[in-house]
Design the sequence.
């Protein structure tokens, strides 16, 4: 328990004792605050969890104790599919989720998760700040009832393997683990690989046992999940400039006052900015760290991978229309 939480816990005990002495029941005091569930699939060592805990503290403070929040990390409340479903059921109140998983509820929001959709980080940031993203987020809310509040930078996704990958041809037939959402399969399919969906918490063992030959994730995630222990090469394909969306479930959002809705929006947007900064810093530092661990960092010509994938952007896998695609590509030009 951190210092701020310990201080509030002590203050709460004093308040409850005072209320009891005044003839107010303990049950009445406890009911004054509603406890929310924030679920995600990431490790407690990752920035996403750190800033989720920070957000929980800020929510409690800024709502003057009307809401408290418990953060459940590392798939402890279920896989990504489960926690997305839980939003509408009210079994979870807040989640981080990939845009590709959110895209199951509203196709256009998945565009941010397509391979080589963004030119670079600046293009991603411009999209995160754009009217286009706000329109897409509103479309998702209208379709699902759940409310996207912020876009967090997840990092550039790279392929790890036990053999070097320098060209698209090197991935032909490669059995590569991907998350269980169609957009993650766009790049492997485009280069003739064999994308294999496996739950996030099962990937390390699948790599160790040779169930799959490779996987793809950003550098901070590769470290947090220790994938570098069971893969020799980190091939810097940078094929997805990826995001996590912070989403509040409709059942919870509709119970909030307008004042509290604004507090939630502000807190989670601040947390997303902090997540983004931390992930950027980690990406800058981790190449040298992986080399110290004995991994080979393999620079690749991303242009040839991009050329292989771009024709699929508006193909059969697309869940957005041409206008949305063109608007996204025009951002920052």
Sequence:
């Amino acid at each position: 328990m951190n210092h701020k939480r310990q201080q509030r816990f002590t203050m709460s005990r004093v308040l409850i004792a005072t209320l009891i002495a005044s003839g107010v029941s303990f049950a009445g005091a406890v009911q004054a605050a509603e406890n929310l569930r924030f679920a995600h699939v990431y490790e407690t060592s990752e920035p996403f969890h750190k800033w989720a805990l920070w957000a929980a503290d800020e929510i409690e403070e800024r709502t003057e104790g009307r809401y408290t929040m418990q953060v459940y990390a590392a798939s402890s409340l279920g896989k990504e599919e489960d926690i997305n479903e839980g939003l509408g059921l009210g079994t979870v109140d807040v989640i981080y989720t990939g845009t590709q998983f959110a895209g199951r509820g509203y196709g256009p929001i998945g565009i941010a998760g397509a391979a080589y959709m963004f030119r670079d980080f600046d293009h991603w940031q411009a999209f995160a700040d754009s009217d286009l993203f706000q329109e897409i987020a509103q479309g998702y809310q209208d379709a699902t009832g759940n409310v996207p509040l912020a876009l967090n930078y997840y990092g550039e996704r790279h392929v790890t393997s036990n053999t070097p990958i320098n060209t698209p041809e090197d991935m032909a037939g490669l059995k590569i683990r991907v998350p269980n959402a169609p957009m993650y399969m766009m790049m492997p399919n485009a280069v003739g690989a064999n994308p294999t969906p496996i739950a996030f918490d099962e990937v390390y063992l699948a790599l160790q046992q040779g169930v799959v030959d490779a996987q793809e994730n950003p550098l901070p995630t590769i470290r947090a999940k220790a994938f570098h222990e069971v893969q020799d090469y980190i091939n810097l394909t940078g094929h997805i400039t990826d995001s996590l969306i912070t989403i509040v479930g409709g059942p919870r959002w509709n119970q909030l006052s307008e004042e509290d809705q604004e507090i939630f929006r502000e807190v989670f947007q601040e947390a997303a900015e902090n997540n983004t900064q931390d992930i950027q810093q980690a990406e800058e530092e981790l190449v040298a760290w992986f080399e110290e661990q004995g991994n080979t960092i393999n620079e690749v010509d991303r242009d040839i991978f991009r050329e292989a994938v771009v024709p699929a952007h508006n193909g059969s896998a697309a869940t957005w229309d041409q206008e949305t695609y063109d608007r996204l590509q025009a951002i920052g030009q």
Observations:
- Residues 9-20, 24-31 have pLDDT under 50 and may be disordered.
